[in-house]
Specification:
about 400 residues, alpha/beta, eight-stranded mixed β-sheet, globular
Length: about 400
């Protein structure tokens, strides 16, 4: 098992705190394994096995626990009355009205509750109402490039390893497989699980081919301004008519299942979100390669996708920036302030360098500005804009 140290540390920090710990993320990103590692940590800390109750609702063994009252009774009977009990409910959204069981367990003074879900709806609706202010969400992604390299245990030839990272995918179990065919079969399984289980079945979608057309369009246009109207028009000319409303519903379902993310557009000068011009990014570039192949790959937009996901991992809110008539790839905001990022595969041509620096130069404030590229030059500064090798930045 690959140690996911940053996520583990968050669980350790929140241990025994009066909060439900909710780990969300795309299927096979490592949520169940994270909890397994954490349970081993608890055992190492002297917690007895009887104090730990773990249920994975994807295991047929628990097929008869699909109602809220059944779940509550099952766990309640196993609780030790004079000890703290650590309760883990994996893929709990499979239980009808699971929110009520979670609320009932949460209010017990001797329960520390941990749940996971592969759909953002786990934190919407009734659960959010019942538990408002009483849970903490840990948003889990597949392996970062740093985690990937750490798992390999070898920091040599980073450019080749980066290429393998994006082509094979960043799901942890990929590292256990050898051969492109085996890895593609595994990626196909993840793709089908997300699309068929988390989207088609849950949303009761009838036109699965059209949903897949939308997915292909998004995967093929990462880093490009995209809207439901644009997708509807593009598909109408080649794949058949689909309404804007239907596309919007598909996009929402894809985001809820964590297979894509949307970066909203932000007017830097006007300091406001814009309604149009947002961009979509995919949770794993390996899935993109699996679906579209390698010939249509845009190296710059793929690198942009990797940087976007890394900024999310580091706890930033991330937006696409607009300043006048030019665009800044990312505005990254956290409690410490704001940073600006421009991403380009190479800027060894003077004209390309000038074009990439222009948006950052146009920003009137003095917040940190970075140009991330694959160029192997040492870190340089262009009037305060730091140019950094992106692989070095990813390994920070």
């Amino acid at each position: 098992m690959i140690a996911r140290e940053e996520y583990m540390q968050l669980l350790i920090d929140f241990k025994d705190k009066d909060l439900i710990k909710v780990v969300t993320g795309i299927r096979r990103s490592g949520k169940s394994t994270l909890y397994e590692l954490y349970r081993n940590y608890l055992l190492d800390c002297g917690i007895s096995e009887k104090q730990i109750i773990a249920i994975n609702f994807e295991d047929p063994e628990y097929a008869d626990i699909r109602e809220s009252n059944c779940l509550y009774e099952y766990v309640n009977e196993k609780l030790l009355p004079d000890k703290m009990n650590y309760v883990f409910l994996d893929e709990v959204q499979k239980v009808t009205e699971f929110q009520e069981a979670c609320d009932g367990l949460y209010i017990k003074k001797n329960v520390d509750l941990y749940i996971t879900g592969s759909n953002a709806n786990i934190l919407s609706g009734e659960l959010a109402t019942l538990l408002s202010g009483r849970y903490v969400e840990i948003k889990m992604q597949p392996l970062s490039f740093k985690e990937y390299i750490t798992a390999l245990g070898d920091k040599t030839d980073l450019v080749r390893k980066y290429r393998e990272y994006i082509e094979n995918g960043s799901f942890p179990y990929i590292l256990e497989l050898s051969g492109k065919k085996a890895k593609n079969i595994y990626l196909e399984g993840i793709y089908n699980s997300v699309v068929l289980k988390d989207i088609v079945a849950r949303k009761k979608i009838m036109d699965v081919p059209m949903l897949e057309n939308v997915i292909r369009f998004i995967f093929d246009n990462i880093g490009n301004p995209t809207s439901a109207t644009k997708i509807s028009n593009a598909l109408a000319s080649s794949r058949g008519k689909v309404s804007v409303n239907t596309v919007e519903n598909y996009l929402k379902a894809l985001q809820e299942s964590f297979i894509i993310y949307k970066a909203e557009r932000y007017d830097i000068k006007g300091k406001q979100l814009l309604e149009t011009g947002g961009k979509y990014y995919v949770a794993d570039i390996g899935l993109r390669y699996f679906l579209l192949g390698t010939k249509r790959a845009d190296r710059g937009h793929i690198l942009e996708n990797i940087v976007y996901l890394e900024l999310l991992r580091r706890g930033y809110e991330v937006y696409v920036g607009k300043i006048g008539n030019v665009e800044v790839d990312f505005i990254a905001i956290n409690d410490e302030g704001c940073e600006y990022y421009q991403v380009a595969y190479r800027v060894d041509d003077e004209e390309v360098l000038e074009r990439e620096l222009k948006p950052l130069d146009s920003i009137p404030d003095h917040n940190p500005k970075f140009l991330l590229t694959m160029d192997e030059e040492p870190m340089t500064s262009h009037n305060g804009i730091k140019q950094i090798n992106v692989l070095d930045w990813l390994l920070k």
